Amino acid sequence: MTQQLQPKTLLQDGRYQIEQVLGQGGFGITYRATRTDDGQSVAIKELFLQGINERWQNDSHTVVVSNADNSSSFEQQKNKFEKEARRLASLNNEHIVRVHDFFEENDTAYYVMDYVEGRSLSSIMKDGVTEQQAENYLNQLLPALKTIHEQHIWHLDIKPANILVDHAGRLVLIDFGASKHIEQGGHMTTSSALAYTPGFAPPEQLQGTMENFGPWTDFYALGATIYQVITLQNPPSFADIISEGETAFNFQGAISDKMKGNILWMMKPNRKERPQSVEDFLKGSRQSKSQATSLHEATSQDTVIAMPQEDKPMSRTPLYIVAAVILVAVVAAIIFALNTRVPAESGYAYEEPIYYSEPAEANDYTEAAPAVEYAEPVPAIRRWDGTYTAEHCAGETYGGTAICYTTTIELWSMNDTEEYSGTMTVDGWQTGLRCSISATAFDDNTIKIWVSHSDSDSLSDGDAIARITYNSNGSLSVNWFGPMLEYEFVDGSTSVNKQN
Question: What structural domains and CATH numbers belong to the chain?
Fold first, then answer.
């Protein structure tokens, strides 16, 4: 059963005609379409939740909820989807993806965006980017940040994969699924867990302290983006920056002191030491080299500051006090890193040239509707990359021997979102099975897994097969759903081991 609308499908009483699928994630499908009244190409995003939605069997257009227990979740996501569309439609800047239309049809929701013909910045990186080009990218992104920050919106997921470059060289910032909005009264509206990308998220974002979010949070990610574009290196963690200072960065080639200084400034672990606004950055980045601290003289606790600092008399502090302060800071950074660590990325995966880069799916479409009082920080979503093994039995015996199997599940994240791909292998009693799987992580420390492709007669595409849960005591358990092989598991819970 197909999940996608077919080419030539008409929407909105014939106003839009579907041409092709551009991408599909756990929360939606994006199409290239034609606006029939003027022939203009547009991108249309359709709300379609993997594992929850299906196409009606007698109607290839209508979206249904496969399990009635998920109906309320789907309606909630539909409301968030609409709020995301309204949020984008309210922003007017050539460097921000524009939304032109929103409508409900086929028992789901759609919004219509600009179709950006070009490549993502993460794809362009493999061609090599000069410092002059990187500075041009930076100068185009600053007006986009100014526009969203003036509306009290923080993007919270700026990275090369979320930036498109059209054939004219214009940058377009996409994917506002992780963004947060501050109401005039100072309240932050959110109803789901915080998504973040390791290496691009500052301390306040990983800690989930939303009251500390601001323009400085986006500036950290902007600095990490420019660093990766210009060096082709993954950004260092803020814990490494705290403990190692400038040496945590791997600046290669002839990069100017000004560019290095701006990156170091934007990626300061202390949010109060980063640029506080676009105007603040523009003022500070105009410093001449003589006004800034020399990069070669900067210590691990005193990296370059692009903003001028007021001259203050130096006070002599005993060396043992200085050493104690530094030791405490380093130990605190290591402890925090151990408690929040995520699997390290193995290199950087480049993309082939594309004509449209679909915004990375995020389990968050919230926007400012009624003000919501913020009470407790929401924890960041747990990362699930790794290999899991579990032994389970069918509850049957053959000649007095239990029929048992060993299942291995391998998961890897898709662009560091809640969406994962992977494989599942089952070995044991007279069988050997391997299939491709997809998974979605949720903010209650669980991840749900279903089949994305299988050549086996006992497993079909779309079958929900397992749910892995981190328990309060730190252990892992897995609940199996049928059909599995020649028999069914119905909420059969077993322990599971994570290998890495």
Answer: 10-114 (3.30.200.20), 118-340 (1.10.510.10), 386-498 (2.40.128.120)
